[in-house]
Automatic annotation (TrEMBL):
<keyword id="KW-0489">Methyltransferase</keyword>
<keyword id="KW-0808">Transferase</keyword>
<dbReference type="GO" id="GO:0070475">
    <property type="term" value="P:rRNA base methylation"/>
</dbReference>
<protein>
    <recommendedName>
        <fullName>U6 small nuclear RNA (adenine-(43)-N(6))-methyltransferase</fullName>
    </recommendedName>
</protein>
<dbReference type="InterPro" id="IPR029063">
    <property type="entry name" value="SAM-dependent_MTases_sf"/>
</dbReference>
<dbReference type="GO" id="GO:0008168">
    <property type="term" value="F:methyltransferase activity"/>
</dbReference>
<dbReference type="InterPro" id="IPR010286">
    <property type="entry name" value="METTL16/RlmF"/>
</dbReference>
<dbReference type="GO" id="GO:0005634">
    <property type="term" value="C:nucleus"/>
</dbReference>
<dbReference type="Pfam" id="PF05971">
    <property type="entry name" value="Methyltransf_10"/>
</dbReference>
Length: 288
């Protein structure tokens, strides 16, 4: 038996098992893709799909600008990509606790809007889209999750923390980690803080002057005036705190601050809070 015949036999068997019986209220007319493959005890970070884009091999060759190489088994399925991804969306409802993220490539922008609506109707708590462009070919990415996003923002007003972070979400594709890093650098220069940027690591080392460090410690409730000279020497020896920018997924960046000296926790919290407000105003307001 050929690989194609074996695949058809598997699909036919799955269709008989899944075509008529509703499962947890989800009525199916097509075989499942993920059900029966994922075990009850298995937990995954994400599911990634590159679906068959076309309904027929003839359709696959209609537009030479968007055509792609592959066999009919790889590129073609009944109903095309919309039907295939819809089946994954249906499966995701039943496997919502097995995957943190479900993701799929989408070949047609017209299908993206339809699929986003289906994901929202399925009850996903988070839905994300992005665009990929290479040469003359454009593709879209669709991601969804039924798990509520964890609160990533640690309010900078909380004293005594050595690490703070916040998320920049919904960014336009022209804004990435490098642009955010340069804006953070501009912010520190405008605040009269000395900083050294490492573009390869997407990080900024910030160092306070003697006067700034002394003023910070004298106003820090956790510090004391006595012995401040020794604390001051420790504070200004090397980096005071470090800012790093990480790309979590397209359109989403994590900005993290790490304090090198607890004596400066007050000014670190205050400065990081101002940086958060500045970057969100600059980048998230442009995303709307």
């Amino acid at each position: 038996m050929s690989c194609s015949s074996e695949s058809e036999a598997v699909v036919a068997e799955a269709a008989r098992e899944n075509s008529l019986e509703p499962v947890d209220g989800v009525v199916r007319s097509k075989p499942s893709i993920l059900l029966g493959v994922v075990k009850d005890s298995e937990i995954f970070d994400f599911c990634m799909c590159n679906p068959p884009f076309f309904e027929s091999i003839e359709e696959a060759g209609l537009n030479p600008k968007t055509s792609c190489g592959g066999t009919s088994e790889e590129m073609v399925c009944p109903g095309g990509e919309q039907a295939f991804i819809t089946r994954i969306i249906e499966d995701s409802v039943l496997l919502k606790n097995s995957f943190r993220w479900f993701t799929s490539m989408v070949g047609r922008k017209a299908n993206l809007k339809i699929l986003v609506s289906k994901v929202r109707e399925a009850g996903a708590s988070v839905v994300k889209t992005t665009e990929f462009v290479q040469g003359q070919t454009a593709r879209w990415g669709l991601a969804w999750s039924f798990i509520a996003p964890r609160k990533m923002v640690i309010r900078s007003s909380t004293p005594g923390k050595n690490n703070h972070s916040f998320m920049l979400q919904g960014l336009r594709r022209e804004y990435g980690a490098f642009q955010v890093l340069k804006s953070a650098e501009t912010f520190f220069h405008a605040s009269n803080l000395s900083c050294k940027t490492d573009s390869s690591l997407f990080s900024i080392d910030v160092t306070l002057s003697d006067e700034q460090a002394q003023a910070a410690m004298l106003h820090d409730e956790s510090g004391s005036v006595e012995g401040s000279s020794a604390m001051l020497h420790s504070a200004v020896t090397g980096t005071s705190f470090c800012i790093s920018v990480f790309e979590q997924m397209p359109g989403t960046l994590l900005v993290r601050g790490s304090l090198s000296n607890k004596a400066l926790s007050g000014i670190f919290s205050s400065t990081f809070s101002q940086l958060e407000d500045t970057l969100k105003m600059e980048f998230q307001s442009k995303a709307r």
